[in-house]
Amino acid sequence: MASLKVYSVGRLARYVTDSSLRTLRTNIYRTTVCKYSTEEKAAEPETNNKNLPASIEECHKQIEALTTEVSSLKEQIKEYDDKYKRALADGENVRRRMLKQVEDAKSFAIQSFCKDLLDVADTLSVAAESVPEGVEGEGAPAALRSLRDGLKLTRAQLQQVFSRHGLVAVSPLREKFDPNLHEALFQQEVEGAEPGTVVTVSKVGYKLHERCVRPALVGVAKGSS
């Protein structure tokens, strides 16, 4: 019986001791956490106050520094905006130039071929004009009439093909001399002709889409001496 009492008292003492230790530990933890939170909150204003100027002079200095920085940034923005606009303008000019080159390539791709055909057209014209005028009568040989009619018809069809592709003949008789379309072979005094006027066309010129392919060989009137 005595041993049972001793065991009960020992258990009770152990329980009281454990409860006291747990309570003590909890109180110590709470005290430490509260103290740390209080110190942290107290340190925050000190940290924030470090960024503030200590005097009015320092405040003015900071304002001047910020103003200078803002001005510098504005200049950079202006410079970048100017470069951006210039880049856009250059890109647009390149685009237009490329479109123009593509259109010219399409329009003048046959320029060399046209130059080669001009000699054929000249030969055909000479052949049509070389047939005597007398073959058009009823007594003229039928072969010559057929030849002359065939040459005229071929020349007319060839001129239609030229016109369809933008190749136009330039025969500037009695027109003002244009150095871009005409090539002067000689000058002569012609009564009643204004100086600088084309009075003779030795060879017809041609232009393709307003571009001179072959200048017309002409004689030009000059003023009387």
From TrEMBL:
Q: Where is the signal peptide?
A: none
Q: Which domain of life is it from?
A: Eukaryota
This protein's species is Euphydryas editha (Edith's checkerspot)
Q: What is this protein called?
A: GrpE protein homolog
Q: Which GO terms describe its cellular component?
A: PAM complex, Tim23 associated import motor
CDD domains assigned: GrpE (cd00446)
Molecular function terms, GO-annotated:
adenyl-nucleotide exchange factor activity; protein homodimerization activity; protein-folding chaperone binding; unfolded protein binding
List each coiled-coil range: 56-90
Organism classification: Eukaryota, Metazoa, Ecdysozoa, Arthropoda, Hexapoda
Q: Which PROSITE patterns match?
A: GRPE
